[in-house]
Specification:
The protein is of the alpha/beta class. The chain has one domain: Arginase, Chain A. It contains 10 helices and 8 strands. An 8-stranded parallel sheet has the order 2-1-3-8-7-4-5-6, with helices on both faces. Helix 5 links the parallel strand 4 and strand 5. The longest helix is centred in the first third of the chain and has 20 residues. The protein starts with a strand and ends in a 6-residue tail after the last helix.
């Protein structure tokens, strides 16, 4: 892995309903992220944040704020692609999960054939036809796999094979979304799978699936994958989530695999947090992914 890391923020809060997640990048930085990454041995450049256009109305109720989200993600796509072209590692801080349409697409555009580890309580595999809410943060994984909405990723020519995608920690997936995930061969490890098999076995299999025939892996960490006891500051909390031990083990195994190409961390909402508990956890997990160890 390169010694150069670019931090790119996106103050996106239009993909979801609850406000505050636009302050997520600042909350993660405020936890001492940059200095702590530098102490690991990296050269870090903070590229600042993308700020979405002011939205006058939601627009299409099946794809709320699509215009503004597309514009911000196109900017994110270009910044992440530029980082990769310079031989740097892009670390993207959200914002809601709609930003992954830009971050994942840039990695796929640059590398051509990637796998995805999507650590999330949700599937984010809806589209404009089956969405129950019209909230675009529930659609990015489907979009980057070329399964709609096409307009969400039209700035990129590359799509990721859904059979190289693994969702870890799922426990809140919509009925039509479940059907779509199964039909397209996405590997989904629910929280009950983790309880039964154990996180170590899950991650060994997940890494194998996402690595098979690919250049490497984009890691997308949604903080709502973690149980609200440990990560209260997120807009769509779901009980019975990952424990801290399970989460750290997953991230440690990703690091040890040497397969991570890029990473985004999303859904930190300081308005719902307790003394930046979730922002600090996000910062610590990023450090773990980049090689911070106790010994």
């Amino acid at each position: 892995m390169t010694n150069y890391i670019d931090i790119i923020g996106s103050q996106m809060d239009l993909g979801a309903v609850r406000k505050g997640v636009d302050m997520g990048p600042s909350a993660i930085r405020h936890a001492g992220l940059i200095d702590k990454i530098r102490k690991i041995g990296y050269t870090v450049t903070d590229k600042g944040d993308i700020v979405p256009d002011v939205a006058e109305s939601p627009g299409d109720p099946r794809m709320r704020y699509a215009k503004e989200i597309f514009s911000a993600n196109k900017q994110l796509f270009e910044r992440v692609k530029n980082s990769l072209e310079n031989g740097h590692f892009p670390l993207i801080l959200g914002g809601d999960h709609s930003i992954a349409a830009g971050s994942v697409s840039a990695a796929a555009e640059h590398y051509g054939n990637i796998g995805i580890l999507w650590i999330d309580a949700h599937g984010d595999f809806n589209d404009e036809k089956i969405t129950p809410t019209g909230n675009i943060h529930g659609m990015p994984l489907s979009a980057v796999c070329g399964l709609g909405p096409d307009s969400m990723v039209s700035f990129s020519s590359k799509r990721t094979d859904p059979r190289k995608v693994v969702i870890i920690g799922a426990r809140d997936i919509d009925p039509d979304e479940k059907i779509k995930l199964r039909e397209n061969g996405v590997a989904v490890f629910s929280i009950s799978d983790i309880h039964t098999m154990g996180m170590y076995e899950i991650m060994v299999e997940a890494l194998q699936i996402a690595s098979d025939g690919t250049v490497g892996i984009h890691v997308s960490l949604d903080m709502d994958a973690i149980d609200p006891e440990y990560a209260p500051g997120t807009g769509t909390p779901v009980p019975n989530g990952l424990t801290l031990r399970e989460t750290y083990l997953a991230i440690e195994l990703i690091r040890k695999s040497g397969r991570m190409l890029s990473m985004d961390v999303v859904e930190v909402n300081p308005l719902l947090d307790i003394r930046n508990k979730t922002g600090m956890l996000a910062s610590d997990l990023i450090q773990t992914a980049l090689g911070s160890t106790e010994y």
